[in-house]
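Notebook, p. 212. Picked up where the previous page left off. The plan for this session was modest: take the two constructs that came back from the sequencing core last week, fold each one, and keep the raw output in the notebook itself so nobody has to go hunting through shared drives later. Recording the first one now, exactly as returned: residue sequence, then the structure token string.
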Amino acid sequence: MAGENSSVTIEPEKERLLNQHKEKHFTAGDIVRDIIIGVSDGLTVPFALAAGLSGANASSSIVITAGIAEVAAGAISMGLGGYLAAKSEADHYARELKREQEEIISVPDTEAAEVAEILAEYGVEPHEYAPVVNALRKRPQAWLDFMMKFELGLEKPDPRRALQSAFNIAIAYIMGGLVPLLPYMFIPRAKDAVVASVVITIAALLIFGYAKGYFTGNKPVKSALQTALIGAIASAAAFGIAKVVHP
């Protein structure tokens, strides 16, 4: 936006129009992705574990102990995975940025030709994109930003993203993981607690699936049913296997 960057020059009329028009795009995609990853695994894995232990005739105290241990280990593991994924993304961007900088210096004509090719793919005619190419060649940083975004399809990552992702996923996993364990904290008999756990967790999966579909632009009802079905299959499989192994 023009008002956000004082180095950008724009016609007063266009600036007025931009200031009047406030677009309401959803911009918290990374946070939502982290929450989806954490909660979906947090609801499903401890749910399956609790169901499996219940099928093996374990007591509620054992289910709680094993469940909390799994939630702690899962949160650390998932958080670390989120950190490494975001860190790898940042490292990849840094490597490509350095490579693109070197190419702009060493083979500027080739890079300029690539700019022309990119613009031509959008239907821009040679006589129209020539001034744009020349303008970018006079602005190395803008040229570099253009190549990173339109040639490589890379956006500059937030330097805090790795730690934020780790924290978001870990907390989301803990929140999701505690849901199927709650009944075992109040019902001594695991056979009784597992029924309440199934009801509560399926309800949570439906709510979570609906919210996931809503925020990701998919059909909320379909997303809710798919999410609940996956959790139900996982827990049923764990319970059945436990019954077979430990009748």
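Okay, moving on. Second construct, recorded in the same format:
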Amino acid sequence: MERPEPELIRQSWRAVSRSPLEHGTVLFARLFDLERDLLPLFQYSGRQFSSPEDCLSSPEFLGHIRKVMLVIEAAVTNVEDLSSLEEYLAGLGRKHRAVGVKLSSFSTVGESLLYMLEKCLGPAFTPAMQAAWSQLYRVVVAAMSRGWDGE
């Protein structure tokens, strides 16, 4: 598989990384719009969220958003050597599997990531940039999916 275009990835991420929590919230709001069934997977201290809004405003979930944005940041930073993140991403895959996330949900996460980038960058989010991010995300998910292997 070809490597994603590093400069397009870095250039577009610079705008997002200035306010990761805000953009991460856009990503997850979109995710819950597209796949509402994911909401019950997020429980803290046994508490179920009554709505996506309830979830998106909870301090614990904001912590999760920060972590997700840091993972994307790590992929951007290592875009030219994503294999260096393989073990870490496989471990992340195992953690997601353990809490009941289905591998198929990651395609919805990918759609939500592209949606967030488009909202953040507007017309600057070119088709070439979208292709680069799609490629980067495919590589990340391929590594994470190793966490589902051996079932």
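Notes on construct two before I forget. The chain has a mean pLDDT of 92.
Flagging for discussion at group meeting.
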